[in-house]
Amino acid sequence: MRQQQALKVAQAAGVLMRAEATTDMNYMRLIKLRYVADRENLRQSGRTITGDRVVAMKKGPVLSGMLDLIKGQAVGSEIWQKFFRTVHYRVEMRENPGVSELSKFEVEMLESVSRQYEDCDEWDLVEKTHEFEEWRKHFQEGTSVDIPLESLLMAVGRADDADRLIKENHDREAFEQFFCRGPVV
Question: Which of 15, 16, 60, 181 has its CA 20 to 30 A from that of 80?
């Protein structure tokens, strides 16, 4: 994960925690809210919020890079750990990471998802994400299988422009890797 991407993941987590007026959250809830926000952002804009890799796991779709940051197992973990620490199954915000890497639209999307699911706990969110077509299509018991961007686009109703959006996402990642943010690790 690029350093800048790790900062953006941290900022998205911070927005969700501030939206819920808390400084700590169950990490499964945090990941599920982020996933739902990424999915909705993709539906509306053709882009996810952070470009995180999505895998189908037993408890639903998981943002792999975010989980690795939470566990301290990713490049960029030092950025995450500046703002957050993990205590058992909870993520505690140490310091506000700000929103400099997020667009206004992305901040509003995260806040909207938080409001939409404020009455759901992490297990309700697991059940909700088990309803998603892309998870049902790719989940295999006992594994973590990548959910390709194409499947996500199909699931959110962007089949008509999936080829164009996949190319744009690929081109943007290549540009950022080469010019802006260093290698993806």
Answer: 60
The tokens describing 65, both together, are: 């890079």
Domain of 78, in residue numbers: 3-180
Residue pLDDT, tens place only, 109-132: 999 999 999 999 999 999 999 999
**Cα angle 164-170-173, degrees, rounded to a multiple of 5:** 140
Residue 185 counted as domain residue: no
pTM of the model: 0.89
Q: How many CB atoms lie within 10 A of CB 136?
A: 11
Within 8 A by CB and 6+ apart from 47, the residues are 41, 165, 169, 172
At residue 76, the pLDDT reads 84
Position with higher pLDDT, 139 vs 163: 139
Of the candidates 3, 172, 22, 35, the one whose C-alpha atom is nearest the C-alpha of residue 110 is 35
Sorted by sequence, the CB contacts under 8 Å of residue 44 that are 6+ apart come out as: 109
